[in-house]
Write a structure and sequence with these properties.
With about 130 residues, this protein is α+β, with helices and mostly antiparallel strands. It has a single domain, classed as Cytidine Deaminase, domain 2, CATH 3.40.140. The protein has four helices and five strands, in the order αββαβαββα. It has a five-stranded mixed sheet. It is globular, with a radius of gyration of 14 Å.
């Protein structure tokens, strides 16, 4: 799936967002190495710490379905261009994706391409020696 199609899928996922508190709807589309795509949207809760971001929703859905090899993610948002993933999402993605993992960010016209390594150059990791 090409980046514009992945952005379009993220935009579709955004329509399902539950964002009654912020009004900021986010969608994500996670491309797996086998070509399957998992969608995610943000789900807010009155207790904000219990909310979940679109990127983690997509990733957790994929993992629950048995996927662990990912090719790219696209992120779209309702109110502003450049919906970069939060720090928590960057760290969670780093558990499963290499630093060269492509991240496509919706912009008002088109999209921006970056990598997980550019977004999180010093990911936390536990070394098991």
């Amino acid at each position: 799936m090409n980046p514009p199609d992945l952005i379009s899928t993220a935009t579709q996922a955004m329509q399902n967002a539950h964002a009654p508190y912020s009004g900021y709807k986010v969608g994500a589309a996670l491309l797996c190495s086998d070509g399957s795509v998992f969608k995610g949207c943000n789900v807010e809760n009155a207790s904000f710490g219990l909310s979940n971001c679109a990127e983690r929703t997509a990733l957790f859905s994929a993992i629950a379905a048995g996927q662990i090899d990912f090719s790219a993610i696209a992120i779209a948002a309702s109110d502003k261009p450049d919906p970069f993933p939060c720090g928590a999402c960057r760290q969670v993605l780093s558990e499963f994706c290499d630093t060269d993992f492509p991240v496509y960010i919706q912009q008002s016209e088109g999209y921006k391409t970056t990598t997980l390594g550019e977004l999180l150059p010093y990911a936390f990791e536990v070394k098991n020696d």
